[in-house]
């Protein structure tokens, strides 16, 4: 089932954005601060109702799906790693099973155990979240999303607080999700991660689409220059690219 938005308008925040995400692919949403990335992801998760336009899960408007269906299909990781309740890691992760409250207990426990292992939280399973580091808390929140086993993972800056090894492990996990026929949509500031790991990229600025397509096209140096006002060039081989930045001055730009 695809997940798409067409002509989405949220006054002052999104101005006619369209995007089609397919299962089996990692889609990255990139853009400068305030571009509307989180707003778009919230609309796609059904948490923010647009002023105009549609969010479609397959053929069906998301607004016509029940809350339970939405929660079963879409796992959403918000940008800020805050937890309202001081529960243990295991209890926090088990909240991810609430949309499937009628599923067999063994299935629920397997999903929780798998998510805890995937996010390397075994040693912290019984620790209250108030006693976790920022990165550990971010991993616990991601594990909650994975425990749902949703058809779609929508994650807003999922690598922001993670160290190198945990970020790489999470990227591998996202790739496993897509290989299993699920869809992954990530808001990313790190353009190298988007370039090396996304299958398609949407670039937005001031609530409008600036570029979209395969990473090599959507994140070409002229797009980066125009959207971020930063001269930059890609180094290295495909899949291992690094971004070399120049001075963000209009007088030193080299668009070759
Ligand atoms: N609750 C809100 N009500 C009104 N305007 C908002 C609200 N939240 C964000 N905005 C504004 O909407 C615009 C888009 O915000 P959004 O959070 O979607 O940007 P973003 O691309 O995710 O930015 P960042 O990279 O800084 O996280 C910004 O100008 C922001 O100030």
TrEMBL record:
SMART domains: AAA (SM00382). Residues 3-231 form the ABC transporter domain. The keyword Transport applies. Keywords: ATP-binding, Nucleotide-binding, Translocase, Transport. InterPro entries: AAA+_ATPase, ABC_transporter-like_ATP-bd, ABC_transporter-like_CS, P-loop_NTPase. Pfam families: ABC_tran. SUPFAM superfamilies: P-loop containing nucleoside triphosphate hydrolases. Gene3D superfamilies: P-loop containing nucleotide triphosphate hydrolases. The keyword Transmembrane does not apply. GO terms for molecular function: ATP binding; ATP hydrolysis activity. Part of the ABC transporter complex HmuTUV involved in hemin import. Responsible for energy coupling to the transport system. This is Iron complex transport system ATP-binding protein. It comes from Novosphingobium mathurense. The lineage of its organism: Bacteria, Pseudomonadati, Pseudomonadota, Alphaproteobacteria, Sphingomonadales.
């Amino acid at each position: 089932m695809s997940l798409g938005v067409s002509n989405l308008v949220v006054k002052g925040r999104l101005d006619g954005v369209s995007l089609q995400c397919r299962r089996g692919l990692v889609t990255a949403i990139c853009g400068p601060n305030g571009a509307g990335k989180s707003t778009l992801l919230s609309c796609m998760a059904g948490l923010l109702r647009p002023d105009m336009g549609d969010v479609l899960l397959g053929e069906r408007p998301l607004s016509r799906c029940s809350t339970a269906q939405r929660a079963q299909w879409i796992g959403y990781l918000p940008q800020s790693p805050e937890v309202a309740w001081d529960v243990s890691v295991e209890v926090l992760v088990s909240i991810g099973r609430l949309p499937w409250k009628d599923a067999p207990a063994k299935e629920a426990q397997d999903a929780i155990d798998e998510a805890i292992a995937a996010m390397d939280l075994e040693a912290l399973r019984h620790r209250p979240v108030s006693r976790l580091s920022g990165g550990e808390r971010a991993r616990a929140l991601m594990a909650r999303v994975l425990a749902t086993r949703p058809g779609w993972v929508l994650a807003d800056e999922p690598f922001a607080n993670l160290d190198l090894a945990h970020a790489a492990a999470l990227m591998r996990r996202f790739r496993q999700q897509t290989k299993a026929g699920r869809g992954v949509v990530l808001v990313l500031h790190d353009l190298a991660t988007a370039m090396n790991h996304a299958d398609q990229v949407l670039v937005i600025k001031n609530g409008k689409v600036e570029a979209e397509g395969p990473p090599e096209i959507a994140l070409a140096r002229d797009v980066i220059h125009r959207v971020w006002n930063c001269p930059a060039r890609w180094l290295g081989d495909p899949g291992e690219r690094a971004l070399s930045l120049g001075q963000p001055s209009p007088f030193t730009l080299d668009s070759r």
